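Handover notes (outgoing to incoming on-call)

Open items:
1. ScbR family autoregulator-binding transcription factor: sequence verified, structure written out, both below. Nothing else pending on this one.
2. Nothing else urgent.
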Amino acid sequence: MARAKQERAVRTRETILRAAAQIFDEYGFSGSSVSKIINQAGTTQGAMYFHFKSKEDLARAVMNEQASDLDLPERPAGLRQLIDLNLYLADELQGNVLLRAGVTLAVEQGQLGLRDFSPYEMWAEQFRAELEAARRAGELLDDVAIEELSQVLVAAYTGSQIMSHLRTGRADLPERIAQLWWFLLPGMATAPVVAELRAFLAEQGTEHGGMQAAGQGTKQAAGHGVMQGMRSA
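ScbR family autoregulator-binding transcription factor structure tokens:
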């Protein structure tokens, strides 16, 4: 009986959390209310306040649990996996409401009276593990400072997704992330790795119709894109 009650409480909390993500995503923090979240969740005010003390507490939970639905790598594998992860997140931000709401709240939290850096630290740690694997594999230049680079990558990704959100509702985010990596790679990776991963980025770009493929074995380009301009870099 106690176990069933505990499982029911876990399900109720999850339902409220996801309802909050939907409401925050649709209305923003200031336009959201506890009553809207309760109605979306189909639960009671008592259940809501049993699990979360306030709307701010809910926002913090959405921020910190934004990655709950993601299929993240179990083990770090280096730069290729890090780029794969970045492109995967770009795709997920277009349709994963929990991730999208969590990212938006993390960016806007200063306006909410919150100051929680843990979502950024979580992603920096994920990126740092991949960079450390890249170093062990000999993919990185000798002077690359992994800790600092992981923070830079999170900041650059955050800025890219904000620009994409404002311009296209994140429709062009995969292309922007591919561009980001195209230009960052020469500053962190050895020449053979840069060539290999740029070819990979060119191939991935065709999946989004935003970049032309380069090199033997890549897919045919779909439309015109940014790769012609990027090849001069």
